[in-house]
Amino acid sequence: MKTPEKAVLFASLDKLIHHRESCDRFYFGQEFCQRLFPTAEAVRKAVAHARECNVNFTLVTPFATNAGVIRVQAAVEAAAGAPGLEVVVNDWGVLRLIHREYPTVPLALGRLLTKQKRGPQLLTIEDKLPETALDHFRRSNADVPHVREFLQAQGVVRLELDNLLQGMARAQGLPASLYHPYGYITATRLCLLAEGAKPGKNLRSIGRCSRECALYEVTLTHGDMPVPIHLRGNAQFYRKDSLPNDLDALNVTRLVYEPQIPI
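Above: the chain's sequence. Below: its structure in C-alpha cell form.
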C-alpha cells in the first residue's frame, strides 16, 4: 500500500508560518467565504514559506461573486512558481477562468462541487435502507463516468472529498484528497453569525460581516441529530476522527489534515 501524501490546511497565514509538524504540502486559502480569502500579498508570503520548508503548495479558492473572481485571479498569479502548484476550485466560473487563462495549472475539484451526500441525519436511517441505496449515499457525483470525462477536459486532475459519516465507496474515480477530521455539510452566502456579539442577536437575523467567525463558533445539538453540528461563520461541519481502512481502494492518494475548523 502506497503511503498517502500528507497535507495541512490553513486559512490563516500566521498559522501556516508557525506550523512546525512535518508534511508534504500546504493547503492555503478559503473554501467557504470570499470575504476571508487571503490577499495576493498573503499568498506570496505563503508560497515563499512553502519554498523555504521544501513542501508543495495548493491554493484553495471559494465560491465567488464577480468581485471575488478578481481576487481569486490575483491570488493565482501571486502563486505562480509555487512548488507543486495546484488550485482547488469551488466555483464553476473560477474553474472556467483558471482553465482558460492558466491552462498548465492542475485543478482539484473542491468539496463544494464534488457533491457527496453529507447530511448527518443519514445515520438515523441507514439501517432501513437497501444496500443499493446506502451504496449510492456513499458516493460522489464527480465519479460518474461522463462527469469525470467533462472534468478532465477542464483540467481537473483530482477530487477533494470529505470522510463521510456513513462510509465511502468509489470506483474508477480520479485520485482523491480526503479531509479530516472535519467534514463540510453545507454553506450559505448569508452568514448567521454576522454581528453575533451584539446584544439581542439571534440565529434567524442577518447582520453586517465583522469576521466574528474568527472569534467563535456555535455547536448545535438536537435529540434527532446523531452528531453535533459545528457552525462556524457561514458553514456547518461535523467531526469524524477515524479514517477508512481501504484508502487504496478509494484511490485516496492524499490526506488533508485540518488543525481547526477551516474558516
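The two ends are 33 Å apart (CA to CA).
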